[in-house]
Amino acid sequence: MTTSHIEQVAVSKLTEVDVAELATRLEQDNYDNVFDGLNDWHLLRAIAFQRPILVEPYLYLLDLESFDEA
Asked: Which long-range contacts (CB under 8 A, 24 or more apart) does 14-20 make?
């Protein structure tokens, strides 16, 4: 996966490897600017809503609340 922008990523085409790479970037938190990290977080969140099985191992990165919108 070469981009972290939600608009440019088709969540339905992401693989387990793509999601693992995304999670690794979030865990390392080594971004050039805060917006890149935020984009990755929003992408992981979008994946969690659309393909929750892929995100199960990384839910701790989202810190979702039960009242979070769907």
From this structure: 14/47, 14/51, 14/54, 16/54, 19/44, 19/47, 19/54, 19/55, 19/58
Q: Where are the domains of the chain?
A: 6-61
Contact call for residues 37 and 31 (beta carbons, < 8 A): yes
Write out pLDDT tens, residues 42-63.
999 999 999 999 999 999 999 8
Per residue in 22-48, pLDDT tens? 999 999 999 999 999 999 999 999 999
